[in-house]
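Changelog-adjacent note: as of this version, every example in the card shows the full chain rather than a window. The one below runs 94 residues end to end.
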Amino acid sequence: MWILFAVAYLSLEQKLESLGQRWGNVCRAVEQRGAALERTVALWASFDELHEKFCDWLSRAEVTVSQMETVTSSLDMQMITEQVRQLKVATHCN
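Full-length structure tokens:
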């Protein structure tokens, strides 16, 4: 009878050790996923900020272009030069 208890004890001990290892693996996997999610959230926030800046820049450039006069003569270089200067100022990204 003592042998049966010893065998049952050893079997239970092995199962608990295996369960402990599996639980440790699950905990490490959860920590790794959590860290990956935190990195993803940080990247998304950065993307969102850059997207907002790009949209603002694009809106300013569209307004500037829409306010420019159409140049029909290639001889009016002064107007063309001024429009290029305006575009450079309006579309300068910070």
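Structural remarks: The helical segments are 2-67, 77-90.
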